[in-house]
Fold this protein.
Amino acid sequence: MKILAFDSSSKALSVALVDNDVLLGEITLNLKKNHSTTLMTSVDFLMHQSAVEASELDRIVVAQGPGSYTGLRLAATVGKTLAYSLNKDIVGVSSLFAIARRLKTDRAVVPVMDARRGNAYAALYQEDNEVVIGQHCVFRDFLANLDKNLPLVFTGETENFVADIEAAGFTNFEIIEDSLDKLPSAYQIALFGKKLKPVAVHGFAPNYLKKVEAEEKWLETHEESENATGEYVQRI
């Protein structure tokens, strides 16, 4: 099975091409650039260098979120366009999993994406199992609810949370500092995405884990109701 996988949910961009679990090529850019100018360029480069035609692909795997709203919408749009135009399968994998899966460890892994102002997107994985579901949270509160005796590895965008982690009272923990190990891996989400059931192309959407700011402001000015979010979507 030939799989094209990509993650544009954070500052880093990762694109991989895999054939029957063998990595043909992977590009990772850890640059403050607009992924809209680099995603398809990276895809085209990998396909050309690997001598793989788009028609030969079997599946598109996309990091579905959480993360940058712009990056998630870009990935979803590109993924859906490729899957629809080529009549290929599409599946989504958590962006947090894309960070966690790069590490090879027996300990539980906490991938972190900085959501600013003390907030984060975080989860807890043991091997491939999501033990604590990915969530948008006040990171100190997230830490307070973790088992203090569980051996943990924190990875991802941890720079602004080091003091909170160190003060949380964990008896056995590590904060990954190596820049490569902290980045998402499109290769790993390709391997995991191979196991998943494909979804309908038109129904594929980013998993933001948090309402976009415009939606939050709209909801604040309207009465709460079961249809509030639906009404917002219809209006825009």
The longest strand covers residues 129-138. Confidence is low (pLDDT under 50) at residues 214-219, 228-236.
